[in-house]
Amino acid sequence: MKQLVVLGGGYGGMRICERFKDEEVAVTLVDRLPYHALKTEYYALAAGTLSDRDVRIEFPEGKHLTYKYGHVVNISPETNSVFLQDGTELFYDDLIIALGCEDKYHNIPGAQEFTYSIQTLEESRKTHQAICGLSPGATVSIVGAGLSGVELASELHESRKDLKIRLFDRGPSVLSFLSDKVSSYVQEWFEEHDVDVINNSNVTLVTADDVRNGEDVYPTNLTIWTAGTQPVKVVRDLGFEADSGGRIKLAPHHHVPEYDNLFVIGDCASLPYAPSGQLAEHQADQVVDVLEAKWAGKKLPKLPEIKLRGMLGSLGKSDGFGIVMGKQALTGKVPRLLKSGVLWKHKKIK
Ligand SMILES: Cc1cc2nc3c(=O)[nH]c(=O)nc-3n(C[C@H](O)[C@H](O)[C@H](O)COP(=O)(O)OP(=O)(O)OC[C@H]3O[C@@H](n4cnc5c(N)ncnc54)[C@H](O)[C@@H]3O)c2cc1C
């Protein structure tokens, strides 16, 4: 029986397990967490509006599915093996790397040492604990106003109205890369809710007590980093050719060019779209199609271009924004309801 090892049980890895749970292939999924965690909701965990339990889903059960809990420390494509921190060595016929990403600090002094993170469940819990310890009137600085920074700032505002929240945005207006309508709506939402947005910012230094933006010094009690991601270190260390974001460049069937049994999906993969949970799932589906053909000795399918459904974001629990059906911009309660619906469906069908 073919041995498929999947590293990471996030959005991409979970989809692989769902698709292969009853197939005649032995699937071993490795993750440091004993459940599938909903990374898209970590901002709410950090803000304290969702509990730990709300962001977990059990892994699927299946005849040929095995779960191994552990920390992947090395991958050896030459010997078709994977090493875990506890000394375990796992062998594979085919490997899917779906280990996700971590913060990228762009060599900004103090950023790694003095900021909190929402990139892992553990770090989001720590961030929440640190927020819980803040006194009324304290300032929270969030560096990076992409989707996760915006969702965190708005959720935290709803959760702790006693805090001053400041959001450092590199662009001329938050989320300006999405659409003018969404961008002005979100920017106004922050103005109305007294969240201080610093547009056109260029953070150059972070200390325990302040954030430097060019010549300006902004005192802070706690700083959270949401200003960039890169694949996790064990994937970066593989040394495969990567794009400017450190994501691994792939052959058309999603394996690395050097090894046709080593697939990379999700936030570790270089794809023509911004990384997202949705993209990781679509790519996982395509890799399943490729593996099924490969194992059956058939010609590999020509993969269609991945088409994304759009994106949805929240501004607290009752407001939001999104891009649907290609380019249509939505703002207000409807996209927020849609986002809740997507989350509900994601939890329900797992
Ligand atoms: C706050 C926030 C909001 C977001 N909102 C959205 C959204 O609304 N829509 C959307 O589509 N995307 C959103 N994203 C992006 C989305 O979460 C990621 O793109 C998606 O999770 C990528 O899926 P993945 O399978 O590549 O990795 P992940 O889902 O991150 O899964 C990686 C898995 O690997 C495991 N792992 C990592 N390293 C190791 C190791 N060394 N050993 C063992 N296990 C390991 C982790 O525990 C994890 O389970 C958001 C991200 C954040 C942070």
UniProtKB/TrEMBL annotation:
Cofactor: FAD
Family matches, as PANTHER family: 64 KDA MITOCHONDRIAL NADH DEHYDROGENASE (EUROFUNG) (PTHR42913:SF3), APOPTOSIS-INDUCING FACTOR 1 (PTHR42913)
EC code: 1.6.-.-
GO term, biological process aspect, one: aerobic electron transport chain
Leading EC class: oxidoreductase
Family designation: Belongs to the NADH dehydrogenase family.
Keyword Flavoprotein attached: yes
MF-aspect GO terms: NAD(P)H dehydrogenase (quinone) activity
Superkingdom of the source species: Bacteria
Gene name for this UniProt entry: yutJ
Keywords, in A-Z order: FAD, Flavoprotein, Oxidoreductase
Positions of the FAD/NAD(P)-binding domain: 3-274
UniProt-recorded name of the protein: Putative NADH dehydrogenase
Pfam families attached to this UniProt entry: Pyr_redox_2 (PF07992)
InterPro entries in the record: FAD/NAD-bd_sf, FAD/NAD-binding_dom, NADH-Q_oxidoreductase
